[in-house]
Each structure stands twice: as structure tokens, then as C-alpha cells.
Design brief:
heterodimer; A: mainly alpha; MetI-like fold; about 0% strand; B: mainly alpha; about 75% helix; globular; membrane (chain A); MetI-like (chain A)
Chain lengths: ~425, ~280
Amino acid sequence: MSDSPSTPLTTADGVPLKVSLRRAVRQSKLKALLLVAPLLLFLIVAFLMPIGEMLWRSIDNPEVSSSLPRTVVALEQWDGESLPGEPVYAALAEDLKAGQKARSLGLLSSRLNYEMSGMRSAVMGTARRIELIEPPYREALIDINDAWGEIDTWRVIQRESSPYTLSYYLAAVDHQYSPSGDIVAVPDYLQIHGTLFWRTFWMSGVITFLTLLLGYPVAFLLANLPLRHSNLLMILVLLPFWTSLLVRTTTWIAILQSQGVLNDMMVALGVIADEARWQMIHNKTGTIIAMTHILLPFMILPLYSVMKTIPPSYMRAARSLGGRAFLSFRRVYFPLTLPGIAAGGILVFILSIGYYITPALVGGQSGRFITNYIAYHMQTSLNWGLAAAIASILLFVVIVFYLVFNRLVGVDKVKLG
Amino acid sequence: MALPSYATRGERIWHYLFLSLCALIFLFLIGPLLVIIPLSFNAEPYFTFSKAMLQLDPAGYSLRWYEEFFTSPEWLNSIKNSFIVGIASTLLATVLGTIAALGLSSRHMPARGAIMALLISPMIVPLIISAAAMFFFFSKINLAQTYIGVVLAHTALGIPFVVITVTATLSSFDTTLIRAAHSLGANPTRTFFKVILPLVTPGVVSGALFAFITSFDEVVVVLFIAGPEQRTMPIQMWSGIREQISPTILAVATLLVVLSILLLTTLELLRRRNERLRGVTPG
């Protein structure tokens, strides 16, 4: 021991041990990061950027400012109390002329129509006759369409000239801007999204509860049978899990429809009359039955893996201490399975609120989810901003539940199959 | 679950009630899959059992829907598309996912939790949201309605499964085995092929199978971003169910059930092999 205690320990080449260790850790950190980097890059391009694009679309509002640039500038001076002056009308005529030539007014007219009905025909009708009009533009434009003579029209154009808007989010929760700029609820007969959000949540709640009700006994049985038997029965759980979603949905159509297997059986058995066949599909019942079946394995598997860790001696101990069967179950076994219930419940709920295929095929009108409306706005009404806003709200809800799940269970504990 | 000999009568009744309840739930789980198999041999174009079928009359059964399936150019083309997209995205997801899993199981991986949560997110985000988002983005960069676009999308969806299974396999990998191999005189190459690879492969293969089935069964994203050229089998089924409902769908469904039985068997064999190699015997 020639070294005095104060000199630091070194490696063979004389580098202090601390430095050398830090360098080694840094290198292995770098190596780990380099291994993950390609996948991270891939997911950023193929997944995160699309999600970002969608969030952007839900507030993006380019139509007015890009199609009516001169009008927007002219409106900056406007007080919003009386009709704007001739320069604004002249700018509008100029913009519409340019837009008509470039054939770029379609998007603008639909965008303004979302805010105020009648604007589509006002814009398109005026644009068609724009080449013929002569100053003074104010009278000429009002002559073509009365909308240009209303203050509200100009208020809407002024408000929507901002490059961002919250109106898609307002529309997603059945609200809108009044012409004066206040936020008001849309008329009752147009309130559709709130109902759908609410229906999606309560039906998913029912489905989650039903999967728990059906999954708990099965998981209990599987966890307490000898492995040889439980492995066999497990196949009955895993086979539906592995079978195509469309196949499982199709089978429920075959079984539940009014000329289907179940109704035929009931009629043949004399349980119901031929004219009084049950309506079990294309409504809420159909969605709930089919989705409970489809999501059941997602409840059974987490419950099973928790129950597997509970030693059977606990229940025996509770019984030997004098607890009746039900009391021992309620006070000892059930509390121990709560983590499994939480994991399975959140998983089923998250999956359920995002389901699209099954409600679309077996839900009819009354059993549709909010996801079906995202598709509707994407494909039929072509209001992509609104679709993006609804999807963003749903995404937010899912992320909140995912974070809870992650805190309670941990994503890395997710087991498959 | 055996009933102890001292069980009271009430407990016995309860026990058998419980078993019957479980039997009913199992029937609910598996029954629908069993119903469609005979239905797919229906000679009539209906979705229900005909009289002749119930009387087990051979005339009530036929292979006409299978014939229709195997002779229809649309169905065959959709199968081809499904395999092209499925295999390409599985390969990509497996390679990227396995390399990343190696990094994730390193002891020094920084921000592991956050990165893991990110890598799993395509599994958690509802498909309709991913589909809408990918539609917006891929149309912007001219990847919508191309094979590449569909493959990239399906790769993203398959990645979580590969990452989960491979990290799980690696976390139970006993690194002393590598040292043991070295001490017994194996060089690194030999150690990799004879020790590491056989132990890790089952995890990689089951991850790949998960990724493949995810792609093979995926409707929503394809519905949004694929063009008519990339029509896959699930899309063909989807429009079949929505438009002209014919028992050909049931024939396809039966074939898919058979496919999932094959997959399940493969996975089970892999799991057993894995346990055997690790010296864990199933109790």
C-alpha cells in the first residue's frame, strides 16, 4: 500500500476510476440511444407528424385570409357597427374576381357556410356574376346578394380572417359563435356531437362493466385450475382474441339479425312468434353484445395474470379464521384482484371508446359512436377541420386514461397472449 | 378447483352453479366462431341454417361460396395485396423494433419510460384517429393511395407489438449464459448463433406474428389512406358486409378462423420451446 489514501483510484492507464466509469456509462447510454434512434425517427415521421398535422388542422383557418386578402386588409379599419364603406366592397369585388379566375373559391364558400348558412350561395353566386358589375361596388354587390348588405356577414368575415380558429372545437361540442362573436349553443335539432360523445362514454362504461361481469368468473376459474386444464381452456379465450375483428363482427350479424340464427331458433322453439322477432342488431343492443364479445379477452387476460399471483392459502386462511365463503371472498380475495380490475377496466374502456368498425357495422343509427362521426365528417360531409377537432378531443380523453393506466399498471407490464 | 371432501351441500350447489356459469361464458366466447363454420357451407344464399342443413341433408350443403371466393379475381387480388402489405410492414416493424428493443433493455437507457410510452402509443391511439391523421399527412406528402403509404402506416401500428414481446424476452435473458459460453471456449460469433439467437428468436418471431396479424386484420387505416389499387382483404370484407351481403363472407371468415388457429398453435409451440430452452418446465 504505497498510495496514500488521498490519491484517487486509477485504472491501469492512469485515468481516475471515476472518470473512466463515467465515460463507460456515457458510451453505453449513447449506444442504447443509437439503437433506439431509427425506430424513434420512423415513428416521428409515420405517426407523430400525422398526429401533429391533425391537431394543426383542427385550428388551422387559412380560407378567408388566403382567398380574400384585400378584403381582410380593408376590413382592419372597420368599426363593426355599420356597413363597411366602398373601399371594402371594392376590395371584395377584386378578391372575388381573382378567386373566380383561379377557381379557388370553393373552400372559402364552404368555410364561411359553416359559420353562417347561406354564405355558400352568396359567395359562389356573386363570383359567377363578378365580371359584369361596375362601381359603385357596394350597391352592385348588395344587388346581387342581400347577404352583403348585412353587418353580420362582415363580422363573420372579419372574425374568420384570423389564421387560427376555435370554431371547429366549438362545433365539436355543439356550440358556435353568434354573429356578434359570443359563444352560443347551436339549435337543439343540430345538437348531435354532445349526444354522441355522451353515448360513446356510457355505452363503453356498460361494455366495460359487462366484460368485468363475464370475465371475472372465467379468470377466476382459469387461475385456480391445474395448469394442464387451464391451458386448454385458455385456448377458448385466445382463439377469439386472435380471430379477425371483421370475422367476429360478421358472426354476430349472422346470429343476431332478424332472419338470423338466434331468432330462427327462438321461433322454432316457440319462444317468440314469427312476427315478433327480436330486434337485436342495428341498434344499441347489437353494439353492446358484439363489443362485449370482442373485448372480453382484454378483460380476462389482465384479471387472470393478477389472480395467478394470489396464493390459494389466503382464502383458506380466511375460511379457517371463521369467515363465511362470501365474506372471505369480499374481504380477502376481491381486494387483491383490484389491480387486475383496474388494468382490464381501463384497457377495455380505452379500446371501446375508440372503436369504429363494430359500431359502424352493427350499430345502425342508434348504436353509433363518436368515431363514426369522425369518419362521416372525413368521408361524407368533408368538413375535415371538424373531423380533426372531434378526433383531437377523443385523443385527449384517451391520453388521460392511458396516463392513468401507465401510472397504475405500467405499459411495460402489458403482456400479449 | 376440486371441491374438498368436507364441502357442505350449499357449497356443492354453488360450485356446480359456478362451473355452469363459466361454461355458458365460454360458450359465449367461442360459440359465434363455431356457428359460422357450418353456415359457410350453406347451399342457399342466406346467413342462417336452412331446413335441409338442420336435417343433415347433403343437398343443403355445398362448397359454392368457397368456389366463388377462390375464383373471384377481386378476392384473390385483395389477398395478394394483404400479403404484400402484411409481409413488408412485418419485416420493417420487426427489424426496427428488435434493434430498438436491444437498446431499451440496456441498463443505461436514458428516459426509458417516456420512450417506451411513445413507442407503444400507436397501439393505444384509436385507429380512426391514426387513420384520419395519416390521411391528412400522407396526402400532403403524396403517400396517400400508394403501397408505400399503407406499408408505413401498418409498420407504425405493428411496432408496439414487436417492442413489447422482444423487450419482454430480453428482460428475462440471463446474461451469465454468454459468459458461460465464453468460458467453455466459444468465440463471440459462435456464442451469438448457438446461445443468444435461439433464446431470443421465439420472442422476435411472436412479435413478428403479432405485427403481421395486426396488418392482416386492419381495416380503418387502409379505408382512409389506400386507393382502389391497394384494396386489401379486410376492405373487401368490409364492403361485402356493407353492400351485398353474401355467404362468401362466411367462407372467408371460416378460412380466417383456420388461419388464427394455425397462428395460435405456432405461438403456443414457440412459447413451449422457449420455456424448454430456459429450463422452465410448465407446472
